Amino acid sequence: MKNILSKGQLSILIVLGILILDQVIKIEVKTNMFYNESIHITDWFYLRFIENPGMAFGMQIVPKAIQTIARTIFAIAIGWYIVILIKAKYKRGYIACISLILAGAIGNIIDSIFYGVIFSKSTPAEISTFVPIGEGYTGWLHGKVVDMFYFPLFEFNWPSWMPFIGGDNFVFFSPVFNLADAAISCGVIILFLFYMKSLNSSFSLCTRSPYQKK
User: Fold this and answer.
1) How many domains does the chain have?
2) DSSP characters for 9-65?
3) Is the residue at 173 inside a domain?
4) N or C: which end of the chain has fewer CB within 10 A?
């Protein structure tokens, strides 16, 4: 049966769908929850509002503005890469994986570019609100990324006899993340599980006709 959507339309639909849902969730959380507030859904799933100043796990290797610009350039490169994949007739599944990664990257870039200038500061005592542009909690490119999904699937204390970590509490899965992060992770995992051949062959696109089928 003929596919209803072209590969380009599929990519756009994935990116827009993830972006809209990601931003709706983030705005709802930021404008309705106190910072570090936690809502119990089940014993293994909480909504917990925190903000990430950097990249994965809160890392801040370079100044925030440079980090945001670098991530924006990276997202543009992924978008260009998807165009090349479509022209080269790569598989829809592979293009969908890369589109998930692009959607997640753009979702977090939006927070970094705009949230600092359109929202007031979130604190444990005050819920953030929209403010006139430029009157937010920081400047352009310096916004913090909103995270909210927390899945402490199980936890235990390490045996006391273990060196360095003996007696410490361990929680699996402890990171707090958002839908954009999940989109990136899902795209990468599916890519490595099912599309390594396509990934490897795409490295030579620049020296091969873009219309060669994969």
Assistant:
1) 1
2) HHHHHHHHHHHHHHHHHHHHHHTTS-TT-EEEEETTEEEEEEEESSSGGG---S-HH
3) no
4) N
Q: Is residue 166 part of a domain?
A: no
Is residue 114 situated within a structural domain? yes
- Please check whether residue 94 lies inside any domain of the structure: yes
Q: Which two tokens stand for residue 6?
A: 């072209």
Q: On the CB side of 103, how many CA atoms lie within 13 Å of its CA?
A: 30
Contact between 174 and 44 under an 8 Å Cβ cutoff? The reply is no
The H-assigned helical ranges of the chain are 7-30, 64-87, 92-110, 116-118, 179-194, 196-202
Amino acid at 114: F
Residues in the chain: 214
pLDDT tens digits along 109-146: 999 999 999 999 999 999 999 999 999 999 999 999 99
The separation between CA 106 and the C-alpha centre of its own chain, rounded to angstroms, equals 8
Contact 50, 26 (CB under 8 A): no
Q: Which residues pair with 154 in a beta bridge?
A: 172
**Please, are residues 13 and 20 in contact by the beta-carbon 8 Å criterion?**
no
Q: Which residues have a catalytic role annotated?
A: 147, 181
pLDDT in tens, 136-156: 999 999 999 999 999 998 787
β-pair partners for 123? 126
* Helix, strand, or coil (residue 26): helix
CA distance linking residue 199 with residue 30, whole number of Å = 37
Range of the domain at 134: 7-36+50-148+178-207
